Write the structure tokens for this entry.
Amino acid sequence: MDENFQITNYTIFYQIMKINKITKRMTLAIFMSLLCMVALAQEKMISGKVSEASGMPMIGVTVAVQGTTIGTITDVDGNYSIKVQKGRTLQFSFIGFITQAIEVDNQSTINITLKEKAMDLDEVVVVGYGTMKKTDLTGSVGSVSTEKLTKKGAPSLMENLQGAVPGVSITQSTGRAGGGFDIEIRGKSSLNSDVKPMYVVDGVICSDIQFLNPQDIERIDVLKDASSTAIYGSRATAGVIIVTTKSGTTEGSKVQSKPSISYDGYYGSAVVSRMPNFMDSQEFYNYRFLKFLTYSGGTASSGNPIYQMGSLEQCLLYNNASQEYRLKTLLDEGATYDWPDLVTQNGKQQNHYLSVSGSSENVSYHMGIGYNQEDGIYTGDTQDRFNFKGSVDATINKYVSSGFNFNIAYIKNEYASDDAIQIAYRMNPFMQPYDANGALNEKPGNYVAMGSSSSNQFSDQRNPLLYMQAEVNEKETYRLLGNFYVDIKPMKGMSIKSTFAPNFTNYRTGDFYTSVDSPTDPNTASYEHKRSMSYTWDNIINYATKFGGIHSLNMMGLYSLTYGNSEYGYLIANGVMDGSLWYNLGSGTMNTENDDYDPTSFSESSMMSYAFRANYTLMDKYMLTATVRWDGSSKFAKENRWGSFPSVAIAWRASEEEWLKTDWMSNLKLRLSYGITGNNAGIDDYETQQTVTGPISYPFGSTYYNGFYPSDIVNSALSWETSEELNLGIDYGFINNRISGTIDIYQKTSKDLLYSVDLPFEAGGGTMTTNIGEVRNRGVELSLTTVNVDKKDLRWETSFSFAMNDNEIREIMGTGEDLPNSNLFIGRSIHTFRGYEWNGIISDKDMIVPDNEIAVLKGLTPGTTMKEYDYYYTCYKMTEGQPIIVDRNGDGKYTDEEDGKYYTSTPAWTGSFNTILTYKRWDLSASLYTKQNYTVSSYFLGEYLNWSDRGREKLQVDYYIPAGTLVDCDGVAADGTYINPKYQESTHYGKYPMPNNGGTNGGVGTDKWLSGTNRYVDASYVKVKNITLGYSFPNSWINKIGMQKLRLYCTVTNPFVFTSYEGFDPEWADTKLSNDGPSTITYQFGASIKF
Amino acid sequence: MKDAKIETTTIMKYKIDTTMKKIFLISAIAMMGVASLTGCSDFLDAENKSQGGQTADDYFGKDASELRVTAYNSIKLLANSNNTDEGFNTTDIYEWGTDLTLASRGSDVGAFGDYSLTSSNGDVLKHYKNCYAAIRWANATLQYGGEDSDYAPEMKFLRAYCYYLLTQQFGGVPLIKHYVNDAERSYPRADLKEIYDYLIEDLTPLVIDSRLAVEDHTGVVSQRAVAALLAKINLAAGWDLGTTLTDAASGTYSKTDDTYFKAAVSWANKAIDMGATTTLSMSFADKWSPFNEGNGEEIFSIQYDRAGYPGDASEGGHSLQNQFSSYYGEEAATGMKASSSMKVPSSKVLYLWDKEDARYDGTFMQFMYNAKIASGVTAGWGTEGYFAYYNVSDHSNLPIAFWYAPSYMTESQIDAYVTEHKAQFARGENINDPKAFLMGDKLVIWSFDVDGNFTKTKPNYSDYLLNINSAPCVRKWDDATTTQSNSQKNCYRDIVLLHLSDLYLVRAEAKYMLGDGTWLNDINAVRTRSGATSLGSLGDYDPRYSRSASFGNITELDLILDERARELYAENQRWMDLRRTRQLVRYNVEFNPKVTSIANMSDASGNVKWYRPIPANEIAANTGMTNEDQNPGY
């Protein structure tokens, strides 16, 4: 393919061109834009008034002369006047209202009443490399408008998108400010975790969209099925999210208009809420006391052993000198602390966006500046983001138009110390944050802070508040995204458009911390820098024609080049000057030992593509779309470089058939599509080349030598992943579209999945990326919007969406075998893990001996009755109060294959519900999001239900205590008897194991509980995402002060969460501890103003 | 006029048409130009600038000497942990589940200790993987450098050493003699005899290979190291191929073949005699002094060097000094070294050495000194507290934090000692509460007040091991130059893999198996060097550790194993010694509190776990193996 295009005459010239590909191409594009031409026209004066059905005058209605660029807008009283030639048509348009057209005859006054649109059937949808009328669409595309996006008031675009499009699953992955999101469209189609949907911002392919200000978004279109995404070829398997930001053409109108100034902003406070139920001081005391009980005599001789206090001195932190048990004293004095409260604060957030837009006869423009700021609930977690935006579109003449659009973002993140966050919640209530002078204790749990003797202490863990002070971690990011285009229309229906779109990202991370552990040379600082540049140069030729009155054909051809490279640098030094942050690494010693130390690196990749698309419509009823794309990528070896990705789709607008037309059915369209897409994410730029790695250093005697070695074995046959997808969809609308929605069902089979196969250790034990696996996703997506009430003053609209995706691994390594260590099992979802099952606590109740192998082996008689603890002691050496781990085959042993249970962390279904109620000038909206029926492995529970340690804070849960257990005493007498002992009177049948130190694994008996089952929980949740109440001031008031629009609103975000998950927030239940944190409720107050 | 107008219009139309055509033409040319200029295939060739455009083949094809360094370096992970992703506490696999080492505070002997290993155990996997990684780099160096290169013999030694470790833990494993750098995934297990014979055949010519020095103390493979390894391989082969197990529980066997034992004796003779130091004349303490590395008894060791280390020295060492000890409190504030509380001596160990034997004091640090603190940190790091033992010449007035008195002392002897040295045991303003211990099952603890007056308690030994300060540290691994730090990668002692007294014991074992009565001479050579009594016959040997009737009488083999424990304690050989000599079950049942019967070390069908499981990942990734190939018991 590529060879065909090589023209030898150009070879020398090409060599020169390659030196500076960008500038040369820019020159060419500018040259084209310099071509100019001129055009002309004459008229009579028409005036009139435009009003709503209620009689209210409408301001800002566009009044345009069709077929020209002449136009005006109505004033504050709804009046307009315009010069127009007789015979021309005047067009009145306003967003949300049905556009009306009136031919000018001899009238001099034309008064118009505009009707509101119930459902916008003329809506235009953005598809790859173009737009389509929604009615002509053959694929599955979900669209979200700016109003819907910004209404939810979250500081991040992704959170606002949550629940907006069925089949698009968005999950916040951390509890930290400015944190990340996981996004999946129609389930996971790759075994590779790097695979994310492709983002296209104003034609530029981006790795994320979090840097944009939500207020700058015009619309978001999500391409879901393969017939829609295939036009993006080798990168489209995970779906495509197309973001259109506001521009001159969308904000200013096509006709002359005065500049309008808009302001949108809010201020909010995030209140820490729904804190997990950590132990208070008395609860922790009780827990710790039990944790020092050991079996009398050292070992358990029966299923209900007697416990003795192991070391009361260590348990209750005895002070030899003052002869007091410090925990008792502190408890009595109430000198205990609520650590979660000490390390968290209420967060703040604000967002401001100011924009100016307008247009003159041939030029429209839009400029914006945004500021977004967020303070997290951890001191030191902050994000500041500035956005600058500019867009100009110019019609140079009848044939040529040109324009540019840029978006610059500056983002500054400061991060609280990960160590601090991880440690903070581990501090038990007795640990003393401050010393007698109010200064921070270095080690809040050691004997000095606790006032006990040196061998009696909790731990030498450093104070998390010190870590918080000791670390400064900052990231500054600059992003520039732009495009520059020339659009030539050489003949009717044809346009040739060349767009050059650079994408530039530069970030710097600085980290400085003063070691709380190492007092000599305590300061470590690192400086990391990455510069990425890429460009995409798209050349599109479009031709649209209608013929024979019933045929409509639209064709598009694309030739596109993408090139990107990045440079990376990282420096780390120890012992740098106090307070010098990362700006004086020279004052310390460079640390080259760090395993991840990678001081400088470079990477580049390129891609060349051709694509073709044809849309054919017959009688506005039957539609056919066919596309094909060829991609060539530098990541693959020469012979495997090119791939082709075709698709075809048909649609039938049944409601346009005469024989089906009824009053109640306003829209019925059936769609059927098939397409092939690819994915090359997760393949490094040089994955098919074996590289040299190192150095390591090794001494012979006292002289060190450097060693290098080859990287993992490479697979030169590597190629794309491909997915085939079949989609069947129905769009429906009833009763004048008061009831409307879509239904889609799909099946996507992804083959040749890129997977790093573990090589046998004989081959180095590394991994090799291969195209082997297969995954299938099948699902249903529904959306339903109903206008429940549509009265003059009262309008109530609700919408539901529902999505179900069934994910199934069909092949992993080509051997038909599971890969249990990576939690990949054929026939199950990718998000599956295998673990043991915990089924209650061994109690002192009676049970029937089951008929299984181990019971018989141990000489028990199945069917007879015995105490639970006797049974479990005999068969499993487990004692009362310890957890029962299910031994599925009853052989007395635990093996993963036989006894493991499969847990899936993909929800069975997700749903959302949105409602908007408007009454006169008030609007009230709310949305709700839910994920149902899935299990997570929670790091949080793993930590806070870890009964094997006894110094760290725990979750207060209902644990089992056998009758007769020593639960407290005031001391141990010389003869070994307890002073004032308290015993558990009757068995407390708790749900969780008894804390103690008798059995193995910290008393719990089985490592299966500690290493897994205590953290497997259902994390289903229902979240009320937001409730917003707004008021739009009447025009008659605000016009007096020169405003066109003033809306004030308040929003509560995440006010209610319904879940059985006991950790911080079910949404990030599986996050690592350093990313974990409580959920918050955000209260915002905001304004939208337009002048 | 009218005509003229028409004409003008025509002209205008013509002009427009011309312009339109021009635009069309220009755009078309532009598009074509674009397509052709960039249509060259070079556009899709990404250059890897950080590799200088080279691949690994290009690079090492020119010079493989840097790969040689990698091969040596990769042996590190087989002997210790430095807590990298690939590493783990290798002492777990070598020392737990034996008669000598127990768990301490906060740790659990886990699957190695109670024989509940499964094929999904991550540490077993790492060990298997690390051995093959080292083999692969040795093979790569051989391939890129060629058989004729100066370092080919060294690589063959390293490869053989890895196979020696693999066979001891896993039995027959895939035998890979070439550098694997392709997508082949099938490597079936080789027969144990095939491996031993290959190693012996491969190593034998190297003993006289002039590319190797006769001996070397800087970590480079020498002829003597090859001979020593041949002795050990032959001894193992003697047991594995020349004896048959009779009964696992009693550790009985019958001998079927002498060949390998004979070879073991002759290679041991060769290795002992070929160096400058052939007799055990240096004292045990000097041999293991941190200031006497690379001495004449050392034959091959993994090298560490603090002074020249190019990175942060607190991160580049190993953790062996942290492994064999109890946690003594936070280092900066107590003056103690960083310790992981991982491995403490069993009661049996503490009774192994008699009073005359200098090896108790040579192995354990009896006295650990106290330290003062200022602002939470010891001011005199290195000269106070733990490292004062090495860095202060006069110990007589140093305040004592802990004394781990030897088990042959009596309670009253200790009473007398602590009374006499009351001033040293007085806490004063020091940080640690002073204590003295009579170690072992008959544990007695003396606690001292500020003035040095004591009280005594007698807790259960195994319970007490769960506390801090509960056991002495092993001096063999102490790095006296460790600076104050809580890092557990801070030990720069060379890790000695082959040394002279081990060879004496290898020879004794091989001779014993051949029925050669002179075997006791080698035992006595090792004993008398450290002052222990010379034994005339087995009857002279009556160990003090307690044992049950079911353990049976003390045998010659028990004596050899006890002597190995005394001489080689904490050298990461014990599990392999017990397996090789077929005493693994007998010793665990008797001395390992986690194993009470042979059933604990067997699967439901009674298959004894003589080997480690082949990692499940390996069976999954290696298409040449199935679950059928798994070792018995798993």
Notes: Chain B touches chain A through 115 residues (CB under 8 Å). The two ends of chain B are 109 Å apart (CA to CA).
